[in-house]
Amino acid sequence: MMNANVAQGRMATATDEAAAEPILRVRNLKRHFDVSPPWLNRVLERKPRQFLRAVDGIDFEIKKGETFGLVGESGCGKSTAARLAVGLYAPSSGSIEFEGVDIGPLSRKQMAPLRSRMQMIFQDPYASFNPRWRVSKIIAEPIRVFGLLKTAAEVDARVAELLTQVGLMPVDGDKYPHEFSGGQRQRISIARALASNPDFIVCDEPTSALDVSVQAQILNLMRDLQRQYRLTYMFISHDLAVVFHISDRVGVMYLGAMVEQAPSAELLRNPRHPYTRMLLDAIPDLDMSGRARTPVSGEVPSPISPPSGCTFHPRCPHANARCTSERPATIATDGGGQVACHAVEEGRI
Amino acid sequence: MNNNKTNSGALLDVKGLRIEFPTRRGTLTAIDGVSLSLKAGEILGVVGESGAGKSLTGTAITGLLERPGRIAGGEIHFNGQRIDNLPSEAMRKLRGKQIGSIFQDPLTSLNPLFSVGRQLIETIRTHTDLTPRQARARAIEMLTQVGIPAPEQRIDQYPHQFSGGMRQRVVIALALCVNPKLVIADEPTTALDVSVQAQIIDLLKTLCREHGSAVMLVTHDMGVIAETCDRVAVMYAGRLVEIGPVQEVVKHARHPYTRGLMGSIPKLGEEVEHLVQIDGAMPRLSHIPQGCAFNPRCPYATARCREEKPEFANVGQGEVACWLWDGVDPATDPDRLFSNVTLAQRARQQADGVGSAPKKSMQACEQEV
User: Fold this and answer.
1) A4: which residues sit within 8 A by CB, 6+ positions away?
2) Is A284 in contact with B360 (Cβ distance < 8 A)?
3) Taking Cα atoms as reference points, which of B66, B192, B171, B178 lies closest to residue B124?
4) Cβ(A247)–Cβ(A254) below 8 Å
5) DSSP calls for A110-172
6) Which of B198, B247, B265 lies closest to A288 in CB terms?
7) Assembly ipTM
8) Cβ atoms within 10 Å of B31's Cβ, excluding its own
9) Mean pLDDT per segment of 10 residues, for chain A of length 349 residues?
10) What are the C-alpha distances in Å from B326 to residues B251, B321, B331?
11) Which of A279, B74, B144, B344 could, after both became Cys, cross-link B16 (CB 3.0–4.6 A)?
């Protein structure tokens, strides 16, 4: 990972030239979960300690007003990365800087003023609502918790405004979450996220449970709100078409590592990492152009005992001896991206 | 509708199917006059949003409709035999042997207490007269065909020892092990990762071609449909709105709903500020609007759409239920028809003094096309 830091330094100078301040900067971030057997089993049966490396050393930064997309198969650590970014998990090592402040070591109290500036939207909005609360109370909760408005009348007016903004009616505030459809519930969760006037919103698969037509409504709404309030999104999805549509920059994760990241148009036009190519190939072709598809083989290995070297080597058509033994460093590419692959570095692909 | 049409060569022929659910607040019509047919070896895709009645249609065909749901009208013919009124024992023999099913969640369609092999062998022996030894050999052969590595060892493992993609392969093996003539695949890839999804779709397609089975593929993923199917049926609020060859439906959709649905899918490599958006949501079964069910959301709706229910009409190589096509030459290019309609509407609005709404509607996108 030493080389990765060098690449990160190069990357940072590139963005300084672009003169946009990053709102979030993540450096060599790791989060390991202890999945060891209980103490007694370890002692009696000599079982070793085991760690699940959900996020294993990722670097990225998100500029203000931009959307950073994160894609990958299930279990690759996307959601863990999202939770780390808003401080719902503490990192095992590495740093997460929100506007230059490392949020990792902050106490609850120190974190509080920052919390109102970052919000999260989840895949299943219904599970994130209290079913016995009326919608107006759900949306007003962040306002109340952060003490943003004083009087009840002000809060009511703000809730009505938020409901209108997300395309619902102020009278909907008197209903309960179960009275709404999936798309409407996602609108409510967006309204709740907006309630504390955040700058940064992490969206964890916000449209995966929705139908395509409803998904289009939600994506359009999110984009309008972003333009209006200059929001910064971190957008996580397993649907590449959705991620490429909404994002300015896309990162591809595989088994806890960021294998490639680049501006979305560049990544789509010129994918470098074999895994990115594989993912792009796997998307069903709506144009029916008869494009030859590389059959995808294999499945994601267990993150508890990941393969040695480059974790992708058992599925990679370009793997050689070096890939099985040495973990690839992240190198910068021409199009403003970064990739971690021996084959790309050596110019084999 | 289309009752007089003869589908003598069809393997499956559904005519005017109507499914009702009696409830305390009145009878809900979940499926209203759905007619479709499948030829042997053909792959028919059924698409629509959740609640459109896609799965219910599949359930009715396999005879697994649960009470209080009931078939209130129409007929289902399979291989020349009427099957919607068969007694449950006769239907049970048909199911599995002639009609195989693949469901969305592979874990719930496998019994967690029995090994994969036992479930395969049970199915094979129920429907054929193979000896246990032959059946086991056949089961191993099926597992090899669906691409499970080391089938001789894997056959004695239990479903929880398989990953999601591998479980779905087992379910496919289970559905195809007795060479059914028809396979109803209900969202077979929805629970899977994109990379695995492609593997499963490829597998399903190849195997059905090899076995000569017809497939009814129920899904909400247009990409999967475009890649797999020969023909597509589009459903909305329990009704069929359009059916036709996959190329025509995907690229030159003739129903406003299909056009909206296709446009709302983000496409790789196509940068747009906004996706096409169908405003509103699908009506509840208890509040299906009069006339065309899509009229409240349709930008082209006229007074007639709000009163009269459109009938299916042959247009191009497919069929569509939409008043826009009434009295129009069936060979008209749909893209041209829709842009003409949009222009006419604009002109009318301007004449009425109503400015064109600044909303990014389907029409605005129609203009861009």
Assistant:
1) A28, A57, A59, A329, A330, A340
2) no
3) B178
4) no
5) HHHHHHTTEEEE-S-GGGGS-TTS-HHHHHHHHHHHTT---SHHHHHHHHHHHHHHTT--GGG
6) B247
7) 0.79
8) 30
9) 42 46 91 89 88 91 94 87 90 91 85 89 88 94 91 93 92 92 91 93 90 90 93 91 92 93 91 90 68 64 85 89 91 90 88
10) 21, 9, 12
11) B74
Would the CB atoms of B227 and A245 count as touching at under 8 Å?
no
Q: What is the C-alpha to C-alpha distance for residues B78 and B289, in angstroms, rounded to an integer?
A: 33
- CA B27 to chain A, closest CA, distance in angstroms equals 21
Chain A interface disruption, residue of B167, B169, B194, most A CBs within 10 A: B194
Q: CA-to-CA distance for B293 and B286, rounded, in angstroms?
A: 12
pLDDT digits (tens, 9 = 90+) for A34-81: 888 889 988 998 888 888 889 999 999 999 999 999 998 888 888 899
Q: Which residue has the tokens 């290995």?
A: A301
**In angstroms, what separates the C-alpha of B260 from chain A's closest C-alpha?**
8
Q: What number of CA atoms fall less than 13 Å from residue A85's CA on the CB side?
A: 32
> Domains in chain A, start-ordered, CATH in brackets?
2-117+198-284+302-345 (3.40.50.300)
Q: Which residues of A touch B266 (CB under 8 A)?
A: 216, 219, 241-242, 244-246
Q: Which residues contact A160 (CB under 8 A, 6 or more apart)?
A: A170, A173
- Residues of chain A contacting residue B275, judged by C-beta atoms under 8 Å apart: 216, 219-220, 245
